[in-house]
Amino acid sequence: MPYKVGLDLGSTAIKCVIADNDGISWSGLVPTAPEQSSLADGLMSKGRSELGVPEGEILPICSTGYGKSLYKKADKRMDELSANALGLFKISGGTARQAINIGGQDLKTLKLSETGEVTDFRMNDKCAAGTGRFFELAARLLDVPLSKFQELSKLPGEEVELNSTCVVFAESEIVSLLARGVPPQSVIRALHASVARRAAGLLGRVTADTVWLDGGPAQNAGLVEAMEDELMTEIKVVPKPQFTVAYGAAMSLMA
Ligand code: ADP
């Protein structure tokens, strides 16, 4: 089965997936920057060469994400919600019915039909609270890389809350907690709980046995636990949660 390419030109990261019928064969990402098209081409060339795809072989490409129209060479464009639903549907073996996607600058919830179509969605892209941008801001203030959040959130320390629903106010809240001597792990736990509350609020009633979570921040198991506590239901994370949307775009090209 020849490879298909899914390109997700997201607000924060450009993701490329090269897939066949068995799943993701190659995936890679770069931070979003001007010249998105050439960044996407660079990723794709890297994937092709690592997979040993011959120079002249043309692979069909589907682009998705905020920047999908910027990639002129795509054979197909797909909206990110449909790509997300299709990717999740395939990865979950057709079982996903309710999902949350936390992106760099937005938060989305979706419901899927028994055939993998989007039947309902909600999106918050007006406010950075509950998005990857909130995590990045906290990482800067705490001077701790995002990849350490999960590990740190397990350390003992006083329980505090972040009450601001706006990132601008949450920033001052974090600064004053740190000035008071509150340890980073307490701030991180409060941040996880705050994002979990946002996501749960947008999701509304849990109607499925399992809620699926994807997007970059889904790599943080501390956040996943906070979401399970908030939603009081099982949260499942796909193996490469930042690539679900790109994978769905690639899957849309399968006959
Ligand atoms: P978009 O499609 O909007 O570009 P992504 O799904 O690619 O968004 O997610 C980007 C976000 O993922 C970044 O804002 C960052 O906060 C978050 N992120 C990336 N890696 C990690 C990680 N290891 N742990 C937690 N968050 C992460």
Describe the structure.
It is a single chain. By secondary structure, this protein is α/β, with parallel strands linked by helices. It has two domains: 1-92 and 242-255, ATPase, nucleotide binding domain (Nucleotidyltransferase, domain 5, 2-Layer Sandwich); 97-237, Nucleotidyltransferase, domain 5 (2-Layer Sandwich), CATH 3.30.420.40. The protein has eight helices and ten strands. It has helices at residues 36-51, 80-91, 132-142, 149-152, 167-179, 184-203, 221-231, 244-251; strands spanning 4-9, 13-20, 23-31, 61-64, 76-77, 98-102, 107-112, 118-124, 210-214, 234-237. A five-stranded mixed sheet has the order 3-2-1-4-5, sandwiched between helices. Helix 7 (221-231) links the parallel strand 9 and strand 10 (234-237). The longest helix is centred in the last third of the chain and has 20 residues, at 184-203. The radius of gyration is 19 Å and the shape is globular. The model has no long low-confidence stretch (mean pLDDT 96). The chain binds adenosine-5'-diphosphate.
